[in-house]
């Protein structure tokens, strides 16, 4: 028993003396990446058609790249599946590929717009599809929490805020925003100016033959000579 009592403290001492490898500090968590637009819409659950439109037109890829590279942020006006169901049957499929790209971009503002700034926003709003043309114009009016959007073809209301992180804002709108350009043909381009007329060459003066006055003088001399002869002949008559 005495031997056991002596060995236990020695064993504890030896264990405490064994060097331990230093533990590496825990890696810092990676900074969060930019938000993913389609992932946000998928989480909400009723934007299936709009997500397919963004993906088929490659607009979704561009949006995520913009969020990663730009400091201006983005604003998405997302129509739910019920809004697309309210379109005429086959309308979405009747649009050309270029029109579908315009339609997807028309629902995106290339800057972050919080809801409280709708009331002071300058019309027309600039969209990813453009905004300088009247046929692509989008105007907003806001009174309090009521935000209305008109395109000349569609009158819509902002229903709710889906997402807002001070960089990306995603709002639900109750109707698909249709650009007026889809229904009003673009004005024809102005006619090109006519080509400048070439100066006509100056006409050379018409040739006129010189007048020979010697013949006329000879003829006059003959007449005078004949008259003198006649007068002499008359004077000789008795």
Automatic annotation (TrEMBL):
It comes from the Eukaryota. SMART domains: FAS1. Residues 189-208 are annotated as: Disordered. The keyword Transferase does not apply. May be a cell surface adhesion protein. Pfam families: Fasciclin. One of its GO terms (cellular component) is plasma membrane. Belongs to the fasciclin-like AGP family. It is found in: Cell membrane. Residues 34-177 form the FAS1 domain. Keywords: Cell membrane, Glycoprotein, GPI-anchor, Lipoprotein, Membrane, Proteoglycan, Signal. It comes from Salvia divinorum (Maria pastora). It is a lipid-anchor; GPI-anchor. Residues 1-22 form the signal peptide. Residues 189-198 have a biased composition (Pro residues). Its main location: membrane. This is Fasciclin-like arabinogalactan protein 12 isoform X1.
């Amino acid at each position: 028993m005495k031997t056991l009592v002596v060995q236990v403290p020695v064993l504890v001492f030896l264990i405490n003396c064994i060097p331990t490898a230093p533990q590496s500090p825990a890696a810092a968590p990676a900074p969060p990446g930019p938000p993913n637009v389609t992932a946000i819409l998928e989480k909400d659950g009723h934007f299936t058609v709009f997500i397919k439109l963004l993906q088929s037109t490659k607009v979704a890829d561009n949006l995520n790249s913009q969020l990663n590279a730009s400091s201006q942020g983005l604003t998405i006006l997302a129509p739910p599946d019920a809004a697309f169901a309210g379109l005429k049957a086959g309308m979405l499929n009747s649009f050309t590929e270029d029109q579908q790209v315009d339609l997807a971009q028309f629902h995106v503002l290339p800057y972050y717009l919080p809801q409280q700034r709708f009331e002071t926003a300058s019309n027309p709003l600039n969209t990813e599809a453009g905004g300088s043309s009247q046929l692509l114009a989008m105007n907003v009016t806001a009174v309090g929490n009521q935000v209305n959007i008109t395109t000349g073809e569609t009158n819509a209301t902002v229903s709710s805020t889906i997402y807002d992180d001070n960089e990306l804002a995603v709002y639900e709108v109750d109707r698909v925003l249709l650009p007026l350009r889809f229904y009003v043909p673009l004005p024809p381009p102005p006619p090109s100016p006519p080509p400048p007329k070439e100066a006509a060459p100056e006409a050379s003066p018409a040739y006129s033959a010189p007048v020979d006055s010697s013949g006329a003088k000879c003829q006059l001399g003959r007449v005078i000579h004949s008259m003198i002869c006649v007068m002499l002949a008359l004077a000789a008559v008795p």
